[in-house]
Amino acid sequence: MTILLEAQNLCRQFGPNIAVQNIDLSVKRGEILGFLGPNGAGKSTTMKMLSGNLAPDRGEIRIDGYDLLSQPKKAKAQLGYLPENPPLYRELTVSEYLKHCGRLNQLRGKALTSAVDTVIERCGLGEVKRRLIGQLSKGFQQRTGIAQAIVHNPAVVILDEPTSGLDPLQIRQIRELIREIANEHSVILSTHILPEVEMLCDRVQIINKGQVVFADSLAALHQQRYNSSLKITLANPPQVTELNSLPNISAVEIISPQQFRIVYQPEQDPTENLLAVAVAKQWALNELVREQDSLEDIFMHLIKDDASIAEVKN
User: Which end of the chain is more exposed for a tag (fewer CB within 10 A), N or C?
Assistant: First the structure.
């Protein structure tokens, strides 16, 4: 697939503070990239650089083949951006505002009218297109913000916390809209909501302290388990020391007199051996449930490990 946005070796420093250091990022056509990191990680700085609102100290950004620094008008023409706080004019109607945004993106005449009508339909704004933006619900305001980001049919759409402050129904509607947008555009999604990443994203990039700590597919992220575990229930359980002595078991946690959590390293699954021993020794295995780290657990492990590495280097 064609790469529509590519950034290489992005660096940005504010005085003595390094906000972003040597970040590489790319997004292909039809792909949703989840961009994650804790507060202060450098996400906002990176998003500002990718959207052309902040120049990097070093590095290159190309949008649909155009260099953002040397060809800013052509590059930005292929970019749609929804910041965390949408740039809405509350005193305008939805239609007036989207026409204004279209004109800013060099649309005129029939092309402008067609683009606005299309985006109103795509974003489900038909019933409110003649209402003042200031009188709309948060959900419709967010839809209007997304509409302005895609009115000129850009190659790449950057969405910063697009479901922030929405109720559950509005969140579901916005997520469905993002999926639909991704059919025709590349999408970079910056969010703190990890389930949203699981539901929407094809790939994930995690940064911490201005540096990339993970960049791969969502499936590969789930393989970054630091520990896995089995929850077992035994009618005739042995002593915990006997369970601990079995091969490839890192730890045994007692949940109840007959229930245990068996912790092991992901590459050393003890399930088959445990089943064989339980049958041979007549432990009467009643339950075996495989447990894995959640996405939140994996995220926290990556951030903590990165912090530990930084402490060692310092």
Answer: C
Distance CA 136, CA 142 (A): 10
Q: Is 172 in a helix, a strand, or coil? A: helix
Statement: the pTM of the whole predicted model exceeds 0.90: no
- Tokens 């650089």, located at residue: 49
Say if strands 32-36 and 186-190 run parallel, antiparallel, or are unpaired: parallel
Tell me the per-residue pLDDT of 272-293, one tens digit each, with 9 for 90 and over: 999 999 999 999 999 999 887 7
For 163-182, write each residue's pLDDT tens digit: 988 899 999 999 999 999 99
**What residue type is 242 in one-letter code?**
E
Q: Measure the CA–CA gap between 162 and 273, rounded to whole angstroms.
A: 47
H or E element that contains 180: helix 168-182
Please indicate, yes or no, whether residues 235 and 217 belong to a single structural domain of this protein: no
Tell me the residue range of the domain where 25 lies.
Answer: 3-222
CA angle, 22 then 82 then 52, to 5°: 45
pLDDT of residue 45: 93
| Separation between Cα atoms, residue 42 and residue 18, nearest integer Å | 9
Contact 156, 185 (CB under 8 A): yes
Q: Is 109 inside a domain boundary?
A: yes
